[in-house]
Design goal:
This protein is α/β, with parallel strands linked by helices and about 550 residues long. The protein contains 20 helices and 25 strands. α3 packs across α4, α10 packs across α11 and α11 packs parallel to α12. The chain binds zinc ion.
Length: about 550
């Protein structure tokens, strides 16, 4: 029998409002049917339909859900895939002030010059112009911007534009003058001032952008609020419905403070991905602990939209982009150089002990194997002294595989990992320069720690690398060049998806309310074209999210219907 609702939904494409209710049915707000609902539940069940009510999942099942419930809105998936929303467990979201130009999409030097020219007119002479994200490989001219290019566009403003990746910046003559850099200036420590044939600086400074950026007036929170909102909202296009923001200050007066996040979510929380915001350890040892007490909140406080996360932004070492990761073996081709630690073992332990005793969770940045060993030893010591079950402390990054003993301690103590599989892809060049042999092949290992019994969740760290690149790298272990690094570290799409959705919710202790598509959980999900589980991995790199739903509301719709 063809019901009226069947008829309506077959006749129309997309959303259909049901005009009448034929039977006394439970009402749903939205039913998605005729799809492949990848629930990521314990059995990894795949169903055809999902019903949503009041922001939560009412039921998951076959297409018969359409008869069981009436729905204000019906959506025929036409065979598309639905997965739980991606949970990026380590991301740096920030806002920019009006002086900043986004150059990520810029495709020529002429376009870059026009952007600088427009900004100079907008701000008026004398004001610093900043910007970032340029990449000469994306430019028609296939070369870096130089000071002469910027002088032509904005002779009366100091300009500094940072390259994608953040390792070099180009300034114009005004910026060079302000920084007091000229032909006679020697290269700074750890950096290079690029020069033309006559020895004059060409404007590009490598690894020491701070020589320019420290001269730019400091942003105030109000200067960057609108842009922060845009940047948090932009995650929805990537299918991200939850994030762990990597660090915020307890000091309410500064850019990127927890207070600013509260302000943002108070007015816009329902339009954004959910966030768990890590707190930067505010000082050393007991002085930091006193500030944490004053802050008055701890891990988990907040609501389903915004929560206080773990203590983060506590970096045990640097990274391979510096390169300043602290490692147990010499860097490739640099005998005697092993990076360095940002803490002594005593310092890191003092912070961990203080925060741990107060009930905080820790999510500590550790990239090199030496820093992983030190951090795990410190966490282990705190856990021996003050045992606490279900602490869920974790390491962010875990790039260089540490000795087996350290992984055994992690498994025993249940120290978790927030891993970034995309690093294998987009930091390939840095790893080739700094690591070799097994250490290169196992960069950002996935399978080995899991086999050791360590729990792992995925994230991206650096924008604008979305979850699809992470999934791609996790299942192929390919770098940007297409070369495979340690095939045995690859995981199945099923496992990769689990780590990018469900496992994130465990990191924030929210596994009872989100991370899978099961009745009663928050209705956070993503609609993808085609069949994700059977897609050729190469296709992931260009796969676009059709729709992102948070709390039952369609917040991103590629078709523009949201
Ligand atoms: Zn980070």
């Amino acid at each position: 029998m063809i019901t009226r609702r069947d008829f309506v939904s077959r006749a129309a494409v997309g959303y259909v409002a049901t005009a009448s209710i034929l039977h006394a049915q439970t009402e749903a707000d939205l039913i998605l049917y005729n799809g492949k609902i990848v629930t990521v539940d314990d059995a990894f069940s795949i169903r055809a339909a999902i019903a949503i009510k009041d922001g939560r999942i009412l039921a998951v099942g076959g297409n018969e859900l359409r008869n069981r419930y009436s729905a204000a809105r019906l959506l025929d998936l036409g065979g598309r895939t639905v997965i739980p929303g991606f949970f990026d467990t380590h991301i740096h979201l920030a806002g920019h002030s009006r002086r900043y130009i986004d150059l990520v999409e810029t495709t020529s030097l002429a376009q870059l010059q026009q952007q600088v020219r427009d900004k100079a007119i907008e701000l008026g002479p004398g004001e610093w112009i900043t910007g970032g994200g340029w990449d000469e490989y994306h430019f028609k001219e296939q070369r870096k911007p130089l000071r002469s290019d910027l002088d032509a566009a904005a002779p009366d403003n100091p300009v500094v534009l940072t390259r994608a990746g953040g390792h070099s910046s180009v300034g114009n003559s005004k910026a060079l003058q302000s920084a007091d850099i000229n032909k006679a200036t020697p290269d700074p420590a750890r950096g290079i001032i690029e020069r033309d044939a006559s020895g004059q600086p060409n404007g590009v400074i490598r690894e020491r952008s701070d020589l320019y950026t420290r001269l730019v007036p400091k942003d105030r929170p109000g200067d960057v609020r609108d842009s922060l909102l845009d940047n948090v909202r932009a995650q929805l296009k990537l299918g991200i419905t939850s994030v762990i923001q990597a660090g915020a200050s307890v000091d309410p007066g500064v850019v990127g403070s927890y207070a600013e996040w509260e302000l943002l979510y108070r007015s816009h929380g329902a339009e954004l991905p959910r966030a768990s915001v890590q707190i930067g350890y505010p000082g050393e040892g007991s002085a930091g602990a006193a500030k944490l007490k004053e802050f008055g909140r701890k891990t988990g406080d907040g609501d389903e939209r915004l929560r206080v996360g773990s203590i983060g932004e506590m970096a045990a070492d640097g990274g391979f982009t510096g390169p300043t990761a602290w490692v147990l073996e010499d860097y490739k081709g640099q005998p005697g150089f092993r990076g360095r630690a940002f803490f002594t073992p005593e310092q890191i332990y003092a912070n961990i002990e203080a925060g741990h005793q107060m009930g905080w969770q820790f999510g500590i940045h550790a990239i090199g194997d030496a820093s992983i060993v030190m951090t795990v030893d410190a966490l282990d010591k705190a856990l021996q002294k003050y045992p606490r079950s279900d602490h869920r402390h974790y390491l962010c990054h875990f790039t260089v595989l540490p000795p087996e003993r350290t992984m055994q301690i992690m498994a025993q103590d249940k120290i978790l990992i927030a891993q970034q599989p995309n690093f294998t892809y987009n930091l390939e060049g840095r790893y080739i320069e700094t690591l070799e042999g097994r250490r290169l092949a196992t960069n950002n290992a996935i399978s080995t720690p899991i086999k050791q019994g360590i729990y792992m969740a995925f994230g991206s760290d650096n924008l604008p690398i979305g979850p699809m690149v992470g999934l791609y790298a996790a299942v192929t272990r390919k770098g940007e060049s297409g070369k495979v690094y340690g095939r045995e570290e690859a995981v199945s799409m099923k496992d990769a998806l689990t780590m990018y959705t469900r496992n994130g919710a465990f990191l924030t202790r929210e596994e009872k309310i989100k991370g899978t598509l099961e009745a009663g959980k928050l209705a956070d999900m993503v609609v993808l074209p085609g069949d994700l589980l059977n897609l050729a991995p190469e296709k992931l790199l260009t796969l676009r999210v059709d729709m992102t739903i948070v709390g039952g509301r369609i917040l991103h719709d590629q078709s523009g219907k949201a």
